[in-house]
Amino acid sequence: YLIVVICLFVTFLVVGAIGFAFYTELQDAVKSTLETSIAKYYGINLDADRNTEITTATDAVQRYFSCCGAYGGVNSTRSWYLYQNASAWYQATTVLEGNKAPFVPLSCCKRRADSSVQDQPRCLGNVNVTNAPPANPPPLTGSNAALFIEGCFDAMQSFVSARILVAGAVGISYVVLMLAGIIIGFIFARFLAVADYYGSKYTAFDSSAGAAGGAGSSSSPIVT
């Protein structure tokens, strides 16, 4: 039991250290994956399973986290502007719909309580607002109240950060419980060792005493 708990404790520490050491690399990998998925696979060739899955997942993430694009803020070329600037979806949609093509997908639009789109023409850029997204490229000074402008990586990071204290408290509690288990295991193992030592001494003493008593009884004269 003690060996298993110690192994789990060491594994927990090693995994935590590795996660901390590669945190920046993990961030860069997630950003790159989001950007590549949107630019190359979103909304096109939906007969391919990969493209369909990426499109469905991206729409779900953008609706749930109230975000648009890969990462960055309103003036980033990798948030809402990524669709217009680098996505195959926008190029294909422009060919089909011309100047009526939306600049962002519908999942980037804010919704009412009944899940209907708040202001679809304004959100998609069909109604141009001076120096505001999505019809105008960054940098911008205007705003669009119908459009999600934050990149999804930043939105998900904010979501996780808001809950990191709970996760940290759970992790620390787990470490404390494991340390308590190790300490209790050591104490119990020591107790067993001591009990075994004195138990063997008592058994040996009892056996020798019994042997001596038996020998004395056999040599004693019988009194009548």
UniProtKB/TrEMBL annotation:
Protein's recorded name: Tetraspanin
Species assigned in the record: Macrostomum lignano
Principal location class: membrane
Keyword Chloroplast among record annotations: no
Membrane-topology descriptor: Multi-pass membrane protein
Transmembrane regions listed in the UniProt entry: 164-192
Coiled-coil boundaries: none
Domain of life: Eukaryota
